Amino acid sequence: MRTVIIGTRRSDLAVTQTEWVMESLQEHIPASWEMQQEKIVTRGDQILNVTLSKVGGKGLFVKEIEQALLDGRIDLAVHSMKDLPGEMPEGLTMGAVTLREDPRDCLISRTGATLNELPENAWIGTSSLRRQAQILAYRPDLRVKPVRGNLNTRFKKLMEGQFDAIVLAASGIARMGWQDRVTEIISDRVMLPAVGQGALAVQCRADDDEMLEVLQGMNHRETEMAVQAERTFLHAFEGGCHLPIAGYATVKGDRIQLRGLVADPGGQPVLSGSSEGAEGVRLGRLLSNDLMDQGARELLDSVREGIQS
């Protein structure tokens, strides 16, 4: 008999996602195994009065959970893939990538106005520089200000009138069963998603062969291929979810198409490109090199300096 301890953040969304993973795992674990959930507070959950970009960068929502894995206090960790930095600590590995939900972003507005219909100078709530950059690139007349907290907190702030609209990941809204609150799913031609958005990562220790074998049963190969290309692209910039970097790959048969973007938080410039092929790591490197040739590294260095000042 084995008791599998699964670590997760404490938010309603994180717990919902972890419960979904536990249900999926039931089909693959030996009958004698039991599963328990352990809720862990991360640094990103504790600091709510500062924008994500200024809190300290990569791994804000995963470091404490990863440490619990390394220490042996938990056996598995469930993360939103977009929260995972491009590089993983030595000793840990991605045991499974789940079937991807809708990777796009969505708009929830108080009046039911879409992104195109919002009045001039309307206030949009998001703490993501990626979303901010693309909103302002599309509609420079809008105003963006940070909104932190869980989904319930953000929705409450919207309805209280602190914002005219907020932008969230469509996948999180779907997992919470809040689809009826969505005003608009934003086209990925207007707002390219975050790397890994819509997928979940099930992380474990690299030497836990027994667990790795079990996790392969719930791994979704196409999503894994797409995410590998996206994360290779992100890793080239030493980036995390706090920087204005977007990457989205689609898979058809054995072909992967990867689109990527690096932008200034003010909306201009926006550097973008795409690559296509059969090998995700190669595609991620090709696309990152393309954007670096356009000046992406210098742009991101400037963004980092602005964050730190």
From TrEMBL:
One of its GO terms (molecular function) is hydroxymethylbilane synthase activity. The modification S-(dipyrrolylmethanemethyl)cysteine is found at residue 241. It catalyses: 4 porphobilinogen + H2O = hydroxymethylbilane + 4 NH4(+). This is Porphobilinogen deaminase. Coiled coil: none annotated. It comes from Paludifilum halophilum. Residues 4-212 form the Porphobilinogen deaminase N-terminal domain. Keywords: Porphyrin biosynthesis, Transferase. It holds the Pfam family Porphobil_deam. The porphobilinogen subunits are added to the dipyrromethane group. NCBIfam families: hemC. Binds 1 dipyrromethane group covalently. InterPro entries: HemC, Porphobilin_deaminase_N, Porphobilinogen_deaminase_C, Porphobilinogen_deaminase_C_sf. Pathway: Porphyrin-containing compound metabolism; protoporphyrin-IX biosynthesis; coproporphyrinogen-III from 5-aminolevulinate: step 2/4. Residues 226-291 form the Porphobilinogen deaminase C-terminal domain. Its cofactor is dipyrromethane. GO terms for biological process: protoporphyrinogen IX biosynthetic process. Monomer. The gene is hemC. It comes from the Bacteria. Its EC number is 2.5.1.61. One of its GO terms (cellular component) is cytoplasm. Tetrapolymerization of the monopyrrole PBG into the hydroxymethylbilane pre-uroporphyrinogen in several discrete steps. Belongs to the HMBS family.
